[in-house]
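Weekly puzzle thread! Below is a chain. First person to post its structure in token form gets bragging rights.
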Amino acid sequence: MKITAVEVFLCHAVRVNWTFVRVTTDSGLYGWGEASLEGKELAVRSAVAELERYVVGRDPFQIERHNHYMYETPFWRGGPVLGSAISGIDQALWDIKGKALGVPVYELLGGAARDSIRYYANGWSMGAESIDDLVSRAGAAVTRGATALKWDPFGDQGLFITTPALRAAVECVAEVRKAVGAEVDLLVEVHGRLSPANAIRAARMLEPYDPFFYEEPVPPENTDELALVARSTSIPIASGERAFSVHDVRPMFEAQAVAYVQPDPCHARGITEMKKIGAMAEAYHIGFAPHNPNGPIATRVCQHLAAAVPNFVIQEWLPVDPAPWRDEVMRGSFPTNPDGTMPLPEGPGLGIDIDLDVVAAHPYAPRDMNLYTRPLLRRG
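Winning reply:
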């Protein structure tokens, strides 16, 4: 079997554009991957086209060999664009191999380490206009079955958050905790926007509300700052969505800067590297919690990794996607269990297919990811 083509399909998804990668073989088998990178989809598409020169004509089963070559051989390596391009191709190769052998991808990764996959809901807070509105949406998310909720309460604030804004952010968390009770886990997102001093100050104000974790409290460039925050609060720290290889996460682990690592399957060189990051985290007693505000293929990839990685803890997912055509695109839906978990994925390979007619009906539309335009929620 040989690879004959690598194609990229962009699908507008309201908040972002999903970037789907299809790898085709001369046997008729094809595989799907996702390389969605907010605001940089066209750059990723070009990077995939450059990698196609290498992969066409090669054996799709030699996944480790191809992943290593695409990352290690070029002089310029690393970063989100190249990492995303490799990710899309890598996922598609695993999909092909699973289909060819008639087994789910997680079986190729060592088999299931659990019977179901706990998830936390993201996206439930989108569009909230006040703290009261946020509280109402939190209750609705729990009613739909979520047992863990994540959102960013810091609005349009940056490194040097004002005291009134900080108090409003903490009030958001306090009110959601009051509304949903102690049994629902709250995960506080920061998007790497606070200075170390302000991240520590915010963490100490948030501690009474018992967050499950505190995500990316400081910018990702300085691991020492992240470690300082980790040593200064009782809230477990989560980070790693802007890490693209085992080389990027190693300093975090050595500095004991994180309790949970969050590599993104669309950016961290796909399933091959994600499995390695999970294994390295296991050696440091760090939980594996993949980052995934992405499209349907990425969610399916995360399910396979969650099934097979022994130190997996919890999976990010958008139960209600801003793009209401998600189920149409994936020719199905993501079932959930009443206890806030998802069943293991079924079918050979990734167990997902894409309807290109639906993709064509929602063509690419430019979108930028700007964290500083989100409203800071207040009362009323």
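Puzzle host: Confirmed. Bonus trivia for everyone else. The domain at 107-349 is CATH 3.20.20.120 (TIM Barrel).
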